[in-house]
């Protein structure tokens, strides 16, 4: 009988390299929201993949940036924690990328005592010659890392990387119940789904000034009733978010409901409200309330 393997596999990289797409490909569920905008992921999200003789705990972290305000500092704290408990580190880059936006993080990868798999993503958008140059570039920078070309979007080489992860994991009992998919509660995924639709439907500063709080999540046998509040920092943002006669907010609600009905496999009724919460991104108290700052 095979011995059981279990461990933490933490995914880091710059914004927009496809970390969330890879995480969702591994888990087989849409746990991390995906948009083309930077800073889509704000929290550290665990996705748990279980087999008879393994448990892989994947961790998707925010993209590495130089923080400009308190929220971004808290986001980078989630990245720092990813170095502390990893059994395997996945460092994701994309074609044409030269290095991390934070030199200190790169030094940590360079000096890592744990296995590092460097994943060159989005190879479906590149020619073979450029890919070979990229691999040589990264081999010279991180000679100890294993390099794997992948396309998370097209699912190319994803299963091979997962098999390699299983080989590298230590023998250990499962850390979480075998039927558990993530460490986050249902309300978290409601909040993230609504925030994803805001990222997709609004421009400029609106998506970055938004935080979502689900005040009510009532589940009956055939329907889930949800009431969520969207926080913004200014009255002008509130007006833009609601739109003419509520049309823009209604669109967000319709799109979020469709995704949540797929996620929960149940009918969903959702009510959305918008409130002004001035300068919440710079308030330590408000950030704690929304699950940042530990």
Automatic annotation (TrEMBL):
Region (G4): 121-124
Record domain KH type-2: where: 194-278
SUPFAM superfamilies attached to this UniProt entry: P-loop containing nucleoside triphosphate hydrolases, Prokaryotic type KH domain (KH-domain type II)
Binding site for GTP: 13-20, 60-64, 121-124
Region (G2), start-end ranges: 39-43
Residue ranges occupied by any Era-type G domain in the UniProt entry: 5-171
Chain residue ranges for the region called G5: 150-152
Ranges where the record places region G3: 60-63
Membrane-topology annotation of the record: Peripheral membrane protein
Superkingdom: Bacteria
Keywords: Cell membrane, Cytoplasm, GTP-binding, Membrane, Nucleotide-binding, Ribosome biogenesis, RNA-binding, rRNA-binding
G1: annotated span: 13-20
Pfam families: KH_2, MMR_HSR1
InterPro entries per record: G_ERA_dom (IPR030388), GTP-bd (IPR006073), GTPase_Era-like (IPR005662), KH_dom-like_a/b (IPR015946), KH_dom_type_2 (IPR004044), KH_sf_prok-type (IPR009019), P-loop_NTPase (IPR027417), Small_GTP-bd (IPR005225)
Cellular compartments annotated: Cytoplasm; Cell membrane
Assembly information from the UniProt record: Monomer.
Role of this protein: An essential GTPase that binds both GDP and GTP, with rapid nucleotide exchange. Plays a role in 16S rRNA processing and 30S ribosomal subunit biogenesis and possibly also in cell cycle regulation and energy metabolism.
Family: Belongs to the TRAFAC class TrmE-Era-EngA-EngB-Septin-like GTPase superfamily. Era GTPase family.
This protein's name: GTPase Era
């Amino acid at each position: 009988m095979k011995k059981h393997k279990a461990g933490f596999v933490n995914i880091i990289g710059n914004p927009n390299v496809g970390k969330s797409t890879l995480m969702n490909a591994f888990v087989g569920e849409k746990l991390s929201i995906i948009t083309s905008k930077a800073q889509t992921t704000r929290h550290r999200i665990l996705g748990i993949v279980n087999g008879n003789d393994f448990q892989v705990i994947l961790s998707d972290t925010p993209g590495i940036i130089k923080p400009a305000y308190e929220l971004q500092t808290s986001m980078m704290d989630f990245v720092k924690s990813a170095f502390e408990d990893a059994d395997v580190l996945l460092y994701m880059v994309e074609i044409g990328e030269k290095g991390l936006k934070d030199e200190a993080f790169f030094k940590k990868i360079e000096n890592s005592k744990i296995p590092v798999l460097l994943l060159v993503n989005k190879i479906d958008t590149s020619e073979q010659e450029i890919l070979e140059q990229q691999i040589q570039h990264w081999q010279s920078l991180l000679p100890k890392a294993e390099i794997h070309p992948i396309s998370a979007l097209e699912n190319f080489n994803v299963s091979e990387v997962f098999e390699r992860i299983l080989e590298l994991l230590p023998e250990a009992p499962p850390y979480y119940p075998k039927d558990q998919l993530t460490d986050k509660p249902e309300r978290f995924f409601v909040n993230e789904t609504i925030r994803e639709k805001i990222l997709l439907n609004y421009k400029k500063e609106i998506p970055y000034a938004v935080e979502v709080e689900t005040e009510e999540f009532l589940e009956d046998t055939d329907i889930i009733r949800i009431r969520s509040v969207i926080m913004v920092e200014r009255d002008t943002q509130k007006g833009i978010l609601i739109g003419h006669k509520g049309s823009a907010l209604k669109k967000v609600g319709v799109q979020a409901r469709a995704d949540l009905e797929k996620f929960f496999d149940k009918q969903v009724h959702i009510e959305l409200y918008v409130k002004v919460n001035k300068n919440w991104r710079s308030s330590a108290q408000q950030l704690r309330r929304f699950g940042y700052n530990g």
